[in-house]
Amino acid sequence: MHLSSLPFFLVLISGIFCQYDYDVGYFPDSDYPYIHSMEGPSSAICAPECNCPENYPSAMYCDDLKLKSLPIVPPGIKYLYVRNNMIEGIEENAFDNVTDLQWLILDHNNLENSKIKGRVFSKLKSLKKLHINYNNLVEAVGPLPNTMDDLQLSHNKITKISPNVLEGLVNLTVLHLQNNQLKTDSLSGAFKSLKSLLYLDLSFNQLTKLPKGLPHALLMLYFDNNQINNIPDEYFQGFKALQYLRLSHNRLTDAGIPGNVFNISSLVELDLSFNMLKTIPTVNENLENFYLQVNQINKFPLSSFCKVVGPLTYSKIKHLRLDGNNLTRSDLPQEMYNCLRVAADVSLE
User: Fewest Cβ atoms closer than 10 Å to its Cβ: which of 163, 275, 317, 319?
Assistant: First the structure.
């Protein structure tokens, strides 16, 4: 199934790639604009074991070198890639030569919190992107400089985020925390100061409830593959810009969903697939993509989509997935076509 285009701001956010089967990744050619020049000769100012492309001498690539410690980073480097190595720790003076470093990409190493010394990241007064995906962290790293706009800590073993570790990150727009071991209580107060946050991924954790205190500026919010069984009434009230919400692969039942909780006028996509719903929750007429596959739904109330049907009042649903439920074509009311008049795809099988 083809989803509608993501908002334009995502073009500016590295590290985000969304598709229906929930694969989340990123492609170096598009996300890291300097990667295509790696085959060129190195600049004279570069760690000898790494590569600094002549056309982009401020980028240094130290990927796939079986490094056990960070190389010496010479002055002038602003974009540092040290992926797919065996680094376990970072010394406190590791970046003393490059306090103006802007991107630090450390994915696929063996980094541990206890071996990241002192306030090594807070010294980087120009740092915008910090990626430590696929490592051995057990808690979020910090403190971090307030220049940060993209923090990625997915695929670790993080069990807690201290209330003050993200404090002051007023420019942070992207936060990846998926595939960790976070529980609801471990997130208390963690996001309170992230006033600019647009993208938050908490999928593949151990949440049983939705966390409190999420920033209301969010555009994209993902809770897939947790153990959430209910949503507090008016939980999403105040989220005036929320467009993409995913709650698939949880334990939601009809009793756990208040009647009007998803009536969010800004919402474009809602995913409630792979839960235990028997009826279709009420949604706003502006919703375009609605995924309900693999639930226990056995009836199709038109009021879930349209309060009133008229020339200018109808549902904007384009894609509706109901396959894997207890519905057949004969269960769909004839009036459905007046309500879902712009639907391009209604899947029942």
Answer: 163
Q: Is the peptide bond before 33 cis (omega within 30 degrees of 0)?
A: no
CA 308 to chain centre: 35
Is 11 inside a domain boundary? no
C-alpha atoms less than 13 angstroms from C-alpha of 50 in its C-beta half-sphere:
29
DSSP assignment of 89-144, as one string? Answer: -B-TTTTTT-TT--EEE--SS---GGGB-TTTTTT-TT--EEE--SS--SB-----
Q: What's this model's pTM, rounded to 2 decimal places? A: 0.88
Q: How many domains does the chain have?
A: 1
Query: Does 84 map to a domain?
Result: yes
- β pairing state of 345-347 and 79-81: unpaired
pLDDT per residue as tens digits for the range 18-69: 434 433 333 333 344 444 344 444 444 899 999 999 999 999 999 999 999 9
The strand pair at 150-152 and 174-176 is best described as parallel
- The Cβ of residue 187 has, within 10 Å, a number of other Cβ atoms equal to 22
Q: What's the domain range around 68? A: 37-136
- CATH number of the domain to which 58 belongs: 3.80.10.10
Instruction: Tell me the per-residue pLDDT of 317-342, one tens digit each, with 9 for 90 and over.
Output: 999 999 999 999 989 998 898 999 99
Q: Which helix (H) or strand (E) holds 30?
A: helix 28-31
- Is 100 inside any structural domain? yes
